[in-house]
Amino acid sequence: MSSIRKLDETPVIATSAQPQRGFTAEQKRYLADMLVKTNLHMALGGTSQAQASDVPETFWGTPVEDLCKEEKRKYEQHVLDIWDDIVRSNDTNQILEGLDQFASRHFGLFNVAPASIGYMVRMRIPACELRGDQMVTLGNVAENLAGGYAHVTTRGSFQLREVEPKNILEMLGIFYDHGLSCKGTGADSARNITCTPTAGFDPLELIDLRKYAHRLSHKILNTRDYQGIPRKFNFSFDNAGSTSCVSDTNDVGFLAVKVSDNDQGVDPGIYCRLILGGITGHHDFARDTGFICRPEDTVEIADAILNVFVHHGNRTNRKKARFKYVLDEYGFDWVCERIQDVLDQHGKGTKLIALSTQYDAPRPNINRHGHIGVHPQKETGLNYIGAALRLGKMTPEQMRGVGRIAMKYGNNDVRLTVWQNFLIPHIKDDDVASVIDELAKLGITTKATAFEAGAVACTGRWACKLANAYTKEDGNAIIDHLNSQFELDQPINIHLTGCPNSCAQHYIGDIGLIGSAAEDGSEGYKIVVGGGVDDDQALARDLCGPVASRDITTRCATIVGNYLKSRTENESFIAFANRHDLDQLKTILLAG
């Protein structure tokens, strides 16, 4: 891919009353960058690492001396060039550490010591779909090479844990042989590409976008510049059907829309609306850019967006390295202009199409728990069946069993959800009862309560060194306690995150719990309430805390009980929260 700067990015020559002597520092950085990227420094007698003596070395336009330590490592050795380190880790049975470990995360290998022994391995499952036979393979790997379990993640993928270094090469070989990968799932990667879990069979969808999610994933994994980008990056494809993949929490979302008759010169039909900048842990949802595009152009546009991020992302401050901060610094209009510049360089005639949302047909209401239970597909006589997992955990026996059910009754098709659950589609009417029965024999239910279906938890302290609380254990205790106290007609989503990094996206939960030390130094949580996504979009607000983990179940019960006593008719939790200011919520929900 061309890394040539655009003309409008050339530093402007300063003018003043006194004539300038020599180049400014910014101009020197620009010239050095051009010398290296065009190899002109070689023609001038330099080496592959040399620069003019009076010009600082740069990495993607940033002086090397200013790079943060992770960027300096990427400058010294590309993250894809660490295979020998992975082999060394395998052959010595020693886990990688420090910046070697940082680099290995780009291959999906995480050192989570001292919280958990061995590597955590995160899978890449584009569009959140995999075959039943691949589920069987993952179950075998979880049992034979990992810790005997796996977790569905909030990006519709799997994580395996407690993988001894000596098993890494065998595991990677098995993945390769079965069309699976864990590459590009950690550190500074464009993470798993998510897609609506009902894509292809949702009766209400506008278009099936899965093939574009797959193409984008392949494009990323086969483009060297997109490995070791300034920070992690999330893409999502939304089919505009009855279920959600929370696209508005992603750096980039492509939302299917039906454009109606208009006076803007845009032909009516199915397009994708481009939204940018979602990162709820930093208090931002993705926002409409004012542009749509043809669905078949989404991959090229995503490529252009990554190109802009690679060139302009912050490489000196990790806290400011996400795409949001490029948008904050330069503005949406400037970023979209740069995206179009890259598209123009491609020479294919691809355009971002300016169009207001007023010409988008209304989207059907999203069923917040539509991924659970039995639902008819668009094809007559076929159904998809959504199962509820307790906070995403599966045993090897369950994984193999689900894979075999998909092969026997479905179309060898399994979909994972961002809610840490899964679907099995293409089940004939006559086979629905048999599938439900076989899932039940595996200990998997298709009739979750309003608390179970929407409960999401990160790994927590038992396996993450950053966490301040045991989210999985506490989440299970909260679900059990609330189930024993209440029966709801409206779902309540509870999100537990062990630290402020928001892996479980606490700010979009009806009730969000953020791991934090309690006053006595024990594990605890800050509590936020009133979050939501899609047509219920809202960031949760601080309610109270930190509350000690030992008291968190009763505190959650108090909140739910007071909500039920104070709501109007069957008002949802988020609607209840949105019609009260924060002081009112504290008075109402914490009473008693």
UniProtKB/TrEMBL annotation:
Respond yes or no to whether keyword Ubl conjugation is given for this record. Answer: no
Transmembrane as a keyword of this entry, yes or no, is no
**Gene3D superfamilies from the UniProt entry:** Sulfite Reductase Hemoprotein, domain 1, Sulfite Reductase Hemoprotein,Domain 2
Where would I find the Nitrite/sulphite reductase 4Fe-4S domain in this sequence? 187-344, 484-564
Domain Nitrite/Sulfite reductase ferredoxin-like residues, every copy:
118-172, 375-441
For this UniProt record, the keywords arranged alphabetically read as follows: 4Fe-4S, Heme, Iron, Iron-sulfur, Metal-binding, Oxidoreductase
The UniProt family comment states: Belongs to the nitrite and sulfite reductase 4Fe-4S domain family.
Q: What is this protein called?
A: NirA family protein
